[in-house]
C-alpha cells in the first residue's frame, strides 16, 4: 500500500495513489494512525471509499508531518565517509532532524539567505509502527510500518561551524520527505538490494545499493533503542552515499531554479525545485 498526505481545497487529507489520481481516505495523519496502533497494511482496504482527485490538483505534504522523532544517520556508506575525510566510525553517527525542516514532494527546498552552501543527500527513510527499548535485531523488522524517500538537504557552512551537525541539518524547508509511504510488505526485507540515486537537473550525482550501508536497518533500530525509547511514527533516515556536492571540485551546490530528484527501486520519485529564501 502507498499512502500520501496532501492539501486539497484547503484541507489536509490522507490518501492512496491510483495512477495519476489520489483516493481520499480521510483527514487522519500517518502519525495519528500509528499512535493508535492502526495496521497500515489493511487500513486503506477498509477506508477506501473516498473520492478520486487528480494528482495535479493537490499539494503534497511531508508523508509524516510530525513524527515523534527523526533520527538521521551520518557516514553510513563507506564511500561517502571517505569523500568526507572522516575515519569510518564503529558506531552509528546519529543526529536529530526536526519537523519544522520538512517539506513535501514538489514543494521548494529553500536555500537560506545566510549561506550559499545548500547540498543534496539522497536517502531512504524508515517509519516505525512500534518501538520500545532494547529491541533485538531479529525483531526489528516487526517494528517497521513502511519506507519513504528523503533529501537530507544540508547547509554545509553551518553544519561544520561546530562538531555537532544539528544546525546545518535543520534549516527550515531543507528536508524533503515523501512522496509516499510504501508499506513494509511491498519492500524487500530491510530494504535490501535497492538502487538509490540522486539527480540534480537530470544528471545522476549519487548512485549506490542499499546493501552498501555500513549499519543496516535492523542494526540501526536495535542500536538506537539501546539508549532511546522508540515510538510509533519515529523516522530513521538511513544515510547517503558518495557524490555530495560539497566533496566535489568545484563544489556542486543547489541553487534557485535547480530541481533535485531522489529515486529508489520501486518507489515513486521524490522531486523538489530549489528556491531562495524570501
Mean pLDDT: 97
Taken together, the total number of domains comes to 1
Unreliable runs: none
**How many DSSP H or I helices?**
5
Portion in beta strands: 35-45%
GO molecular function, one term: hydrolase activity
Protein name: 2-keto-4-pentenoate hydratase/2-oxohepta-3-ene-1,7-dioic acid hydratase in catechol pathway
Pfam families: FAA_hydrolase (PF01557)
Cofactor: Mg(2+)
Layout of helices and strands:
Layout: E1 2-8, E2 11-18, E3 21-26, H1 30-35, H2 40-46, E4 52-54, E5 59-60, E6 70-74, H3 78-83, E7 93-97, E8 102-103, E9 109-111, E10 118-119, E11 122-128, E12 144-152, E13 154-155, H4 156-159, E14 175-183, E15 195-200, E16 203-209, H5 217-227, E17 235-237, E18 259-264, E19 270-276
Parallel strand pairs: 6-17, 8-14, 9-19
Antiparallel strand pairs: 1-2, 1-5, 1-14, 2-3, 3-4, 6-7, 10-13, 11-12, 11-17, 12-14, 15-16, 15-18, 18-19
Cofactor: Mg(2+)
Protein name: 2-keto-4-pentenoate hydratase/2-oxohepta-3-ene-1,7-dioic acid hydratase in catechol pathway
Organism: Pigmentiphaga kullae
Amino acid at each position: 500500500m502507498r499512502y500520501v498526505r496532501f492539501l486539497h481545497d484547503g484541507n489536509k487529507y490522507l490518501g492512496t495513489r491510483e495512477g495519476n489520481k489520489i483516493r481520499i481516505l480521510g483527514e487522519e495523519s500517518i502519525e495519528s494512525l500509528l499512535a493508535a496502533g492502526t495496521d497500515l497494511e489493511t487500513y486503506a482496504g477498509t477506508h477506501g471509499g473516498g473520492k478520486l482527485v487528480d494528482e495535479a490538483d493537490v499539494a503534497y505534504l511531508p508523508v509524516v508531518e510530525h513524527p515523534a522523532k527523526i533520527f538521521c544517520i551520518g557516514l553510513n556508506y563507506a564511500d561517502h565517509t571517505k569523500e568526507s575525510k572522516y575515519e569510518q566510525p564503529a558506531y552509528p553517527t546519529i543526529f536529530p532532524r526536526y519537523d519544522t525542516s520538512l517539506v513535501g514532494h514538489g514543494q521548494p527546498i529553500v536555500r537560506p539567505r545566510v549561506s550559499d552552501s545548500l547540498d543534496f543527500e539522497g536517502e531512504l527513510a524508515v517509519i516505525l509502527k512500534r518501538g520500545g527499548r532494547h529491541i533485538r535485531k531479529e525483531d526489528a523488522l516487526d517494528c517497521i510500518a513502511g519506507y519513504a524517500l528523503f533529501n537530507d538537504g544540508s547547509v554545509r557552512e553551518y553544519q561544520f561551524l561546530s562538531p555537532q551537525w544539528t544546525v546545518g541539518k535543520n534549516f527550515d524547508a531543507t528536508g524533503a520527505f515523501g512522496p509516499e509511504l510504501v508499506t513494509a510488505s511491498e519492500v524487500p526485507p530491510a530494504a535490501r538490494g535497492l538502487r538509490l540515486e540522486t539527480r540534480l537537473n537530470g544528471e545522476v550525482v549519487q548512485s549506490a545499493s542499499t546493501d552498501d550501508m555500513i549499519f543496516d536497518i535492523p542494526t540501526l533500530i536495535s542500536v538506537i533503542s539501546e539508549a532511546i525509547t522508540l515510538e510509533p511514527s519515529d523516522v530513521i533516515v538511513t544515510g547517503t552515499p558518495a557524490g555530495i556536492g560539497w566533496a566535489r571540485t568545484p563544489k556542486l551546490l543547489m541553487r534557485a531554479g535547480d530541481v533535485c530528484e531522489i529515486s529508489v527501486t520501486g518507489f515513486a520519485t521524490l522531486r523538489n525545485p530549489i528556491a531562495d529564501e524570501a
